[in-house]
Amino acid sequence: MKLSFEKSRPGRGSRILPETDVPERSLPDALLRKDAPRLPEMSQGDISRHYSALARRVHGVSDGFYPLGSCTMKYNPKLNDEMASLPGFTGIHPLQPEYSVQGCLEAIVLAERLLCEITGMDAMTFQPAAGAHGEFTGLLLIKSWHESRGDSGRTKIIVPDSAHGTNPATATMTGYQVVNVKSDEAGGVDLEALKSAVGSDTAGLMLTNPNTLGIFDRNITEITRIIHEVGGLCYYDGANLNAIMGIARPGDMGFDVIHLNLHKTFSTPHGGGGPGAGAVGCRRALAKFLPSPQAKESGGTYSFEDPESSIGAVKAFYGNFLVVIRTLTYVLTLGRGGIVEAARNAVLNANYMMNGLSDLYDVAYPGICMHEFVLTAERIKKEYGVSAMDIAKAMIDRGIHPPTVYFPLIVKEAMMVEPTETESMETLDEAVAVLREIHELARTDPQSLHDAPISTPVRRLDEVGAARHPVLKYSF
């Protein structure tokens, strides 16, 4: 398929602009660029066909089942988009005076209060633009806390071997040394290994619970106690909050800081490059370090204030505001009971699907899972020469987006499946039937799986080459 730059023709376009209703002004010559930007020149019809053709090549949650493990690719209610499209939210400017955006500030304050109730935190910022950005912000809070107490010897962050890859990357970016702790036989944190890893140099722990194996760590309060006893703080990666929201609160487990992927758990469409929001919550003792500004209410009036010892702004203005509106709509629509039901359905769907496959596929850590589960194709590869990648590509031919493969790294030939709470039993039954069919082909016709996908515009891509040598601009 040709790029828009390749379809461009000089002089072609579709410029239909309304009459200006404000006085015209010209920029000073010093601010004008010397050369016109190299933008594609296309007619409206060609543009429409171009993007329609691109859309047909994309598989999204509106096209079919999308069980991408640990990423929560679920249906997002259209009501949330309607609320986020209201002129009172979309027509504002970030430099407007506070008195003119009282409703928007009220929405931010209300969203903070509700999410703090769900997570067990005391304060929250919506500035970070994504989960990893939230991680970075959260660790800056932890670092500021230690520095404010003159505790400069804390240089290490504990990270389990089952963690999201962003966790060690974030710790490194904030200047910490990463200490990996192995998992035990049940898939949780090995307590003895944790005890031997902590000390006076421990700044904190980064942990997801339930973890990337889909397991809720039954020792979670003991884990956070071990960290607190040596003077460290506990950071909760909220990527997997779907399984426990409204049922168990990270604050009650002993966590001091948390980030939430609002674009996963709280219903802004995930994927496609954004927008996202990695809201960060914390205990009261850390609130004075939160990014500035913070929306506050006093006597019925809303305003922005700078926290006492703020780490400063982490994003221009106040983050992706409309993602917060979608989140607020989602929480208010579901209510206390609906939030709990969504979490329970996420767990129910994952266990239903896992049990429909466990007689053919090996479950990496058998037992009751939470919102996701991890299969291993290691035995299938040894017996039939069919890898997790082969299975994933064959799923594409059958109209299903494959699960996350080869992660977590501690499971060989891993396939991490997250059905989410919004899928019906019929959809799960169809997905189970597809995976059972693929298993039979692995036994009887493995070459057909090596050849997959055959129905896509392109076949298997050089993913390693694309990651290491990306082409990021068009060469004219």
Report on the architecture of this protein.
The strands form 3 sheets. This protein has a 7-stranded mixed beta sheet, sandwiched between helices. A 4-stranded antiparallel beta sheet has the order 10-11-13-12. A two-stranded antiparallel ribbon has the order 8-9. The longest helix has 35 residues, at 321-355. 37% of the residues lie in helices and 12% in strands. The mean pLDDT is 95. It folds into 2 domains: 80-334, Type I PLP-dependent aspartate aminotransferase-like (Major domain) (Aspartate Aminotransferase, domain 2, 3-Layer(aba) Sandwich); 337-454, Aspartate Aminotransferase, domain 1. Helix 5 (102-119) packs parallel to helix 11 and helix 6 packs across helix 7 (166-173). It has 16 helices and 13 strands. Helix 10 links the parallel strand 5 and strand 6. It has helices at residues 4-7, 44-56, 78-84, 87-90, 102-119, 131-148, 166-173, 191-197, 220-229, 250-253, 321-355, 378-384, 388-397, 425-444, 446-451, 463-468, and strands at residues 123-125, 156-160, 177-181, 202-207, 233-237, 257-261, 278-282, 294-298, 301-305, 362-363, 373-376, 404-405, 414-417. The chain has 476 residues and is of the alpha/beta class.
